Amino acid sequence: MLLVAIPLTLLSCSDDDSNNMPENNSIAAIASRAPQFTILVDALEKADLVTTLDGSGSFTVFAPTNTAFTNFLADNGFNSLDDVPVATLREILLNHVVEGTNLSSNLSTGYVKTLGKGAASATNTLSMYINVSSTVMLNGVSTVTTPNIMADNGVIHEVNAVIGLPTVVTHATANSNFSTLVTALTRNDQPDFVGILSGTTNSPFTVFAPTNLAFGDLLTELNATSLNDIDQPTLENTLKYHVVAGGNVLSTDLTNNMMVTTFQGQDFTIGLTGGAKITDAQNRVSNIVATDVQCANGVIHVIDKVILPTFN
């Protein structure tokens, strides 16, 4: 009886040890146990990203729900997750991941870098615009609905929409500091700038984007009361003058006295003495105040003055 009891006791101890093993609380493991993230988990497996979010490191993951994925698939003409190209799916998922543990209370309005890459740059990862003015809004398309799901290797924020790879238009519309620029680009007598800057024809684009204050100063300079006082050819040529086609020109690519040929056809000059700036065709100077907002089809640099070509 004693000989029989010994192995039974050992077996019992072994079972207890197994039951007392600590639960895996990595980001990937928490997502796998959450019923609202089943499609996300399937997507991570398909894109071979489970190991990344199950391992060491520190990540902030903005995690779309099943409903968010279902809507994304329908909106983009996919019947199922299997219809999404793996390479595209991988970058979309990485576009939801930011390095470091960023609790909702630590988020602020502005740009952060995700781990995703678009086609425009091999080195500069995609930018995400976070707006915390009311709810936490990401790229103007997705809202954090359940924040601060803590994991051993970071934090999960549940979101209500998949954050697609951002285009130049995505970032222009997401940031309220560009609302006047968006109004100008979408004026009904202008070319289809939204279609152009959302697409890949002539891309990648480098856009020097004036702020609302820059447009306000321009109206004062021109003695105009609103954009409606600016005629169609002047506005079209001015907007095209802020775009460089066929190049994702990062701030590190800029050189002093560099001549830049624009989508409009005329040039402007980059100056780096005393800070990066642009001297336009009318010898007016604009400061480059923020750089390298990376989009999937180009990059945006923010300027504090509207630049002007010469007009015949």
From TrEMBL:
InterPro entries attached here? Adhesion/Biosynth-related (IPR050904), FAS1_dom_sf (IPR036378), FAS1_domain (IPR000782)
Domain (FAS1) ranges? 24-163, 165-307
Cite the SUPFAM superfamilies for this sequence: FAS1 domain
**The name this protein goes by in its record:** Beta-Ig-H3/fasciclin domain-containing protein
Organism listed in the record: Flavobacterium okayamense
